[in-house]
Amino acid sequence: MEMLLVLAILMAVVAISVPAYWAYEERREEQRFFELLLHDIYFAQSESYRLERAAMVVFRESSHSYEIVTDILKPPTVRKLPESVQLKKTSNLTEIYYGANGSVTKSGTMRFDTSTGERALVVYLGKGRVVLFE
């Protein structure tokens, strides 16, 4: 009888904690994705400045991914977006293009739907400062 009571309590604890862990893990995956995205954007900018060639970060809706293109002779680096992150249609940017001097050529906002709500990535004209808003 005691064994059934212990098993019932254990199952109740597991039933409560596993869904909470999945939600936590999804939020952490999104957080890691946005940190990596910011690093990739800064990498593209620094490579364009260093190589004195254009570089860009391009979002591909069809493949649910983005590409970092720094050299036309090398294949682009492709990264998948997490399942819980979607680039919204209301975004006025689908790519960030840096000229040979490291300056961005078009400013705008990328809007993402996430499990915790909308996040916006704002690219400012000029030196290409990028800010992520929650």
Question: Which key terms come to mind for this protein?
Answer:
minor pseudopilin epsh fold; alpha+beta; about 35% helix; 1 helix; 4-stranded antiparallel β-sheet
Describe this protein's structure.
The protein has one domain (2-133): minor pseudopilin epsh fold (3-Layer(bab) Sandwich). Helices cover 37% and strands 29% of the residues. It is built from one helix and eight strands. The protein has one helix at residues 2-51; strands at residues 55-60, 65-69, 77-80, 86-87, 95-98, 108-114, 117-123, 130-133. A hairpin with a 2-residue loop joins β6 and β7 (117-123). The mean pLDDT is 85.
The secondary-structure element order is HEEEEEEEE
The strand count comes to 8
What structural category do the secondary elements indicate?
A: alpha+beta
Strand order of the largest sheet: 3-2-1-5
Proportion of β residues?
Answer: 25-35%
CATH topology: minor pseudopilin epsh fold
